[in-house]
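Entry 14. Structure prediction run on the chain below.
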Amino acid sequence: MEFPFPLCNTFIIPTLACTFLLLFMCKLLLAHRKDGDHKKLAPLVPGALPIIGHLHLLAGRKKTPTHLILASMADKYGPIFRLRLGSVPVLVVSDSKIAKECFTAKDKELATRPKLLASEIMGYNYSMFGIAPYGEYWRGIRKIVLLELLSNRRIEMLRRVRESHVRKAIKRTFDHWSHNKDPNSGAVVVEMRQWFSRLIVNLSIAMLFGEEEVGEESQLLKSIRNLLELFGEMPVSDFIPWLRWMDLGGYEKAMRKTAEEMDSAADRWLKEHRAKRNLKSKEEEDFMDVMLSLFDDQSNQTHPLGFDTDIVIKSTCLTMVVAATDTTSITLTWALSFILNHNNVLRKIQDELDIHVGKERCVEESDINSLIYLQAVVKEGFRLRPTVPLSIPHEAMEDCTIDGYYIQKGTRIISNLAKIHRDPKVWTDPDEFKPERFLTSHKDIDVKGNNFELIPFGSGRRMCPGMSLALQIVHFTLASLIQSFDMKRPSMEPIDMTGSKGLTTPKATPLHALLIPRLTSDLYG
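Output returned:
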């Protein structure tokens, strides 16, 4: 979650102060009077300014990721503290025990999402179910997604699609090596960040919309990345609503452009599916076909839960594309970056593959349960580099208490997952990449939302519903790649581990690797 630099512009504060200071102070006094002295409040970070609150503490250090700024605050003020961002009260949680209370005992009270500008403009007026307010619509769409795309039955039905696309990517890379290998080293350089992105977007589109391939520099990939960066920006008007008309930083304009690009792609898929609807058998139906079957036979174009039918179908399908494409490719990129920086880890994964799979056949998804060390590597990657380092904000739907502190209705709750995952009270050498910890001291901890020391997919009602599918794809893709190719860094220098800004944290720089096939050529066909 990044905050725009224009907030720190010295022109804005004095101009706004003259207009809104009296209103702000009155509101603040009333809030304090309402809270009274009887309610115990979480520690408040000092240094709030009139009108903007603590925004300057976040915006003033633009090169530092927000989760690191909040982690530093947690070191000073404790594992739970308050901020005021403009007119919005915010509670930051940086401890696994408090996170457990938020996602279990207080899960229902905190189950809704704040209404943000990005959710309105790029989320089809809050109809994307991942960011939709808690209620009948969210429950209805989530149930459809879980039953029709993410059920164990559906995931197994799509296994051949996943295996096919991963092997296509492996074959493309083998062909690239055949024509471009260095005559001296026998290796070829491949940019793996783009490799993963292309594979995952193709795989996602195949599962959701049927077979379709995109190019390495497709507009869809660019639009998805823009959307997630803009979701992470959080413009001024999200905290000081009176300033929306100014569009400080130009974020609303950028959001509308990205929304148009995404809607154009979704609209094209929808029209193509309607045109071919009667030409497919039940077995050939993809997720958009299922959505059409559920909603298109109604007598009117309004979904029973209140949205236009086309909006429901497009927003739900785009939610799945965006979530699957970005988070999964980022997870794979970070995992391989750690592996390339630790050659002993690569050798252990290859040894495990050679023992349980061998070199006479290609690894299959059914082999993953035997690859215990590979699973530990993936867990450690999630721990050190959660794709979403700050949980998507929750919002208190009613007054409640967390860790004994009074929480006012409307407070936004942010869990600092990156901080929780590196808690030295839980993890020995928390900043070190040590997959072996998940074979010994932490072997009973998983990433499925039950162990709050490690919750990269969140937990509770609003946890990521695509977790099981994502884990299948990550494990199988890494296993296939590492079985198929020996690899190393292009130089002696460690891989750069700098992350980018946005709601998610992709690797900021390309990930180049030297690849050499390690199987017989007939297995790449």
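The first helix runs from residue 12 to 35.
Filed with the rest of this week's runs.
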